[in-house]
Records
---
Amino acid sequence: MIAIEGCKKAGKQMDKEQFTARILALEKRMYHTAFSILRDNEDCADAMQNAVLAAWRKLGTLRRPEFFDTWVTRILINECYQIIRGRKDTVPYEEYEAVCAEPASEAYSPERQELFDEIMRLGEHYRLPIVLHYVEGYSVKETAKMLAITQAAVKQRLLRARRILKERLGGRS
Amino acid sequence: MRKLNGKDVFPEVPAPVHRAVLDALDRLEDPGVIGTEERKENRIMLPKKKNRYTAAAVVGAAALAVCSVTGYAALKYLTPSQAALEVNDHKLAAAFQREDAVLIDESQKYDDYIITLLGVASGADISDYIPSDMALGDKAMYAVLAMERTDGKPMPDTDSDEYGSVSFFASPYIQGLAPGKFNIYTLGTGYSEFVEDGIQYRLLQFDDLSVFADRILYIGVNEGATCDVSAYLYDETTGKISKNPDYDGLNALFTLPIDASCADEEAAQAYIDRINAEWNSSDSGSESRPEMTDEEKELDAFMSGITGENIGEHLERVEQTVQTLTPDSDGYIEYSWHLENGAGSENARLYLDWLGPEAGETIILGWSSSGGTIEGLCVETLTDNGDGTYTFAVYAGQDGAQ
């Protein structure tokens, strides 16, 4: 059913030190991805911790090392959804807004703060593709793989999200 | 398009999160971690490609009658529950194992394909993938379809370049509601898809339609990316939908067993009204507006076929609006235009990183029509010239171009 055999090589080629280095290099992108789903730092910490351990356990299934980033991100997304499923309620918007405002308030220009706020107001359906593609710079193809959707679906969501953002941000122009 | 670094918009990694990551990295060789790997390895599943349309919300409660649970084409196909696991949807897999799930196993053969409806499940919170921004809660209905070739050749795997070369449009339909309008695009939230052993499986997610239980509910499959209304006959008197016998191609049509006692005429009408409102709403989908006139419908249809690539074939570029723009240090461009004939004007500031085109691409920024007609159209476009500059231009219909 799953091409386990064909996946062994890449994982075996990466030792603990290499794995650690790759994870640390990816940490910020992982955090942004997790935050865009969970909108809560404590949950992000849990999700990232779980994802790192899961990725290490599943390393043997990684088909090709160049897909490491997208592969780990996909695992992280699954961990995030696991946490969401365990929640009784989703994080209220006010709660995550307070979380977001603190780190951003000093360094951010008002425009970027506003952009960040508007991104986080997007439904997750649009928010995650936006973050993965535009914030983290993953290609449409990579984003599609991470979200397990088609490239056409990614483009569709990006287009629609852009329109929503344009509409909301354009109001002040 | 210039990409933002994460640090530009998103917060840095907070210390507690970083500590959690370091802690995990320290534990990589803990016996528990390694032991887990060995136990789990045989059932690791990689997610396959999935696709979800943007869509309407989900409503209603489970209302399907229980049918035969035997068969499954001599165990040829995955069960709906197994199919759900293939796309990592554990909730849905569990839902298909509940007593109220409907396991159908009905095949229809066409020249090139065999289409099989494997089962249907519905209810609240039955999927891991119901979009969180759905307006009407977390209830949904799922149908699982299997599609295979009659010549025995495998369907293209979702990872292959051939995937998508043949597309299927699978959709729920409702007696009394025209298929061209009431289909997966308006009733659904999308689908997941994967190929296993040469068989293509599709998990359709759509609104829980049990409020329509006093009508016939259908699942149709036609070849192509959109609903081909010519594949089916819609009897406007009875509202019944049937296969068009003269249709040259795939037009599978299944009926769903529904417990008629679950019909809710009032809720059904409210649902129809909502879809009508969405159908007539602006592209952003945020607000409804009155029923469109024929001219507006024509305009809408016209614009739906306009892209940055083909706009020059349909509308005339207004040279006086053409501007070469360079983003400011914050990544914004500003543009303004005004047509002397009063057909339109605009003065806007645009954040390129998010709203601009890719390098070499032309996008449509927006459009308006002074008279609600194609002739009165003014369409804003922006092209990334690939050298750090952008070209803004308005394309207009006959009235605007004069």
---
Amino acid sequence: MASHDHDHPHDHDHDDHDHHHDPHAPQKDHDSGPADPHEVLEQALRELLIEKGVLTAGEINAQVDFMDTRSPALGANVVARAWTDARFKQRLLADTRVALAEMDIDIGSLADFRTVENTPETHNVVVCTLCSCYPKLLLGIPPAWYKSTAYRGRVVVDPRGVLDEFGVKVPDGVDVRVHDSTADLRYIVLPMRPPGTDGWSEKKLASIVTRDTMIGTAIPKVTEKTAARAARGKSAS
Amino acid sequence: MSGEPVHSAPRFKPGDAVRIDDRAAHGHCRTPWYLRGKTGVVTEVQGAFRDPERLAYHRSGLPPQVLYKVRFAQPDIWKTYSGPSTDQLEADIYEPWLQSTT
Amino acid sequence: MSEPKRKTRLRKGAGGRAAHDVGGLLDFGPIDRAEHDPALWEKRVDAMLILLVGPKKGAFKIDAMRRVIEDYGQQEYDATTYYQKWVRAIRNLLIEQEVITRDELDKKFAIVATEFEGRGRSVPSKVIP
């Protein structure tokens, strides 16, 4: 690990002497090769904001840590709860903010959340054509493809083609409903619980709920492996 | 419903047919170009929110604007839509961009 | 406080749509589904933005951030990554809102660039539009 000399002299508050335990020690410092000038710009802005007392290094680090706690695994727990608790599901669909708060998930004040439910009649898929709005405070930072102009451009006009590319074949007779997140509402898809999961625990159910199933570009699948794992878990418990 | 208190009664209600204004954007706006001039149906009054077209220029965004969820039949947006005619698209649109179709 | 100028930078050959307003366009090739974990500097950009627009700091609104990104127009919009757009927009807004000055930033950028180079990481361009 880095000696003291390699520590980033600007990464911390002046009252923070615990250099060696900084979880945000600059992992990229030892990268060889040219830097993206935007990375230099980030550090310059961060240092100026800290020097001016607008932000502290502690606040920035805490926010990075906080965002690291937001990941598709968190959303998967919510979906699994909705699959096993019909009343929770009703609350989730009626007021997502309140239902998430029950699970100690605070979505902050920047945007409100809506949950849209896949049914045998309707498959939902989410996009933000104007920028990249995403339920980040539940699912973490969005995948690069979600932010790409290729996805944003095409999914509204050719949703079935895009879904097909992602491996989702929506049969005729099931409507595809695209949600363009144009305002301060963030959309989460509640996928359908797949057959073959009767008696599964919430934890096992959550294991088949991926990020893309909550965007609508995948459907939860019971593979031989997950089924076997669930069966083993069931007999053991 | 969420966001800011509603200052004025919403002009539209769920079930109303609405046409998205096809005027040009004048600076920042949140009404996508592909929906302008298209007709859909209000499915939900989402509440009132500060106006992004003013917030973007450091103004207060007040009074809040009523926001609607509008559902479009895909063939009403794209003449050449290749999927089933029952496919849909929904977007959240602020009241100043909505026109009555009657 | 004077209001920044309202303008809409259009996408060429795509009707009256703005550069960022891409719904319905098929011009961008296949969807690249490669997964990338964000780099630490990108996570910090994300963190700074959330803090700056939050109720406690209120340096500017997220709507202003979107407006500044849109103001770059098509060429820059298509050529930059997500967090490149964000860090530029944060810079422009901090200057617009007089939280920092251009001069302060130029000086700081030069110091940080020298530090990077001292660690063996060249900074190929020191001008970011």
